């Protein structure tokens, strides 16, 4: 096990012995085979209080997790795409209330699923157009094929859109198909985890006139020095890539899932703004510090502080929480007391959520059990990286919060 820090934890309000519980606890997941390995980073007031690695990035190769390990971050791509969109919003390129069909005509005249089957769905006209804020908040009525809880996600799967898209389809082509499907609910009336952030990525492309990878490189990764965050892993970096695992149904031990994991070794046709990136702890740490500092890091400002505060407030209709509005079967954590902003889940009521974080903390994660959180009240960030699908296998995110917040003593 390797542990590093940039300051004495005592100086920023942490008990070092209690921080050590993080490694003891998550070490057991590796020792009994439930996880291959992991990397955890905890910061406060801009200082790294605890950074540790344990286990293997590739069990079969005997390769340990290193500080520069490359991780598939999947849906932790979504906040980056949301930041990209809001950078354009700050420049006056669109309004949150704008109908997206202004730029993406395939989403004009949408219809909403009413009844029937995958073979014969019945629909009604949408009473509200999909607007930009619907994409940012997952209230557009879109869905994911892998949900497997509704007729609408069955239509996605029937067209080849499951955990991976059909071969050879680019982002524009995928959005053209999404526009043909009925919506799961009337826009703005519920919350449904979905391809909305992929569509948002396409909106970034059309509004900016750049491909999503070019925009990210020129406007976000380059300025922030996120040199290890890419859409695919080239051969020169392949030895740093962590292997992907799934739990054995009988034993719970992590077993390699090479068929799905190998996809990231090839340049993608579809640039998924919702799930496409590979990154390192060091790079994503810079992204979370940018957010914590109100949109600025090391003299580079991507967003204004008021924009970041606006993005990380609850934007769900009526100020309700995810427990009240979530449809489609997505529930990897307790949704009580948790709202959703413009690209982030936002903790509103720690007591109702049974999470020991502060009100106003925001977070998200990826399907391979990665996660991050930013707590402005405590000036705290945390990162968890591992590669086990699905992320609902073990309660890693809730346990990480327990361990971090119980180590705060000031």
Automatic annotation (TrEMBL):
Domain of life: Bacteria
Record-linked SUPFAM superfamilies: beta-lactamase/transpeptidase-like
InterPro entries (UniProt xref): Beta-lactam-related, Beta-lactam/transpept-like, Diverse_Enzym_Activities
Gene3D superfamilies, sorted: DD-peptidase/beta-lactamase superfamily
Beta-lactamase-related domain residues: 22-402
Protein name as annotated: CubicO group peptidase, beta-lactamase class C family
Organism: Micromonospora yangpuensis
């Amino acid at each position: 096990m390797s542990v590093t820090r940039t300051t004495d934890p005592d100086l920023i309000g942490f008990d070092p012995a209690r921080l050590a519980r993080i490694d003891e606890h998550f070490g057991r997941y590796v020792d009994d085979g439930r996880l291959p390995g992991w990397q955890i980073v905890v910061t406060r007031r801009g200082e790294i209080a605890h950074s540790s690695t344990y286990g293997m990035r590739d069990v079969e190769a005997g390769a340990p997790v290193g500080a520069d390990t490359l991780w598939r971050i999947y849906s932790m791509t979504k906040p980056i795409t949301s930041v990209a969109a809001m950078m354009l919003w700050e420049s006056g390129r669109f309004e949150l209330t704008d109908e997206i069909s202004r730029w993406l005509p395939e989403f004009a005249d949408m219809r909403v699923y009413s009844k029937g089957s995958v073979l014969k769905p019945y629909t009604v006209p949408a009473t509200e157009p999909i607007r930009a804020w619907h994409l940012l908040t997952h209230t557009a009525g879109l869905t994911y094929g892998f949900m497997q809880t509704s007729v609408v996600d069955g239509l996605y799967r029937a067209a080849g859109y499951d955990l991976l898209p059909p071969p050879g389809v680019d982002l524009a082509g995928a959005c053209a198909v999404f526009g043909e499907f009925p919506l799961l609910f009337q826009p703005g009336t519920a919350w449904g985890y979905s391809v909305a952030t992929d569509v948002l990525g396409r909106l970034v492309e059309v509004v900016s006139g750049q491909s999503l990878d070019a925009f990210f490189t020129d406007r976000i990764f380059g300025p922030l020095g996120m040199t290890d965050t890419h859409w695919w892993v080239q051969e020169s970096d392949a030895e740093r890539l962590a292997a992907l695992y799934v739990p054995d149904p009988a034993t719970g031990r992590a077993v390699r899932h090479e068929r799905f994991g190998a996809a990231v070794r090839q340049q993608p046709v579809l640039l998924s703004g919702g799930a496409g990136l590979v990154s390192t702890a060091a790079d994503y740490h810079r992204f979370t510090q940018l957010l914590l500092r109100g949109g600025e890091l090391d003299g580079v400002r991507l967003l204004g502080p008021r924009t970041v505060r606006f993005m990380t407030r609850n934007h769900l209709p009526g100020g309700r929480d995810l427990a009240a509005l979530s449809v489609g079967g997505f529930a990897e954590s307790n949704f009580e007391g948790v709202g959703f902003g413009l690209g982030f889940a936002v903790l509103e009521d720690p007591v109702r959520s049974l999470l020991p974080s502060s009100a106003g903390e925001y977070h998200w994660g990826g399907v391979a059990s990665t996660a991050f959180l930013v707590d402005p009240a405590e000036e705290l960030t945390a990162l968890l990286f591992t590669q086990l699908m699905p992320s609902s296998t073990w309660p890693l995110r809730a346990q990480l919060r327990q361990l971090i917040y119980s180590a705060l003593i000031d």
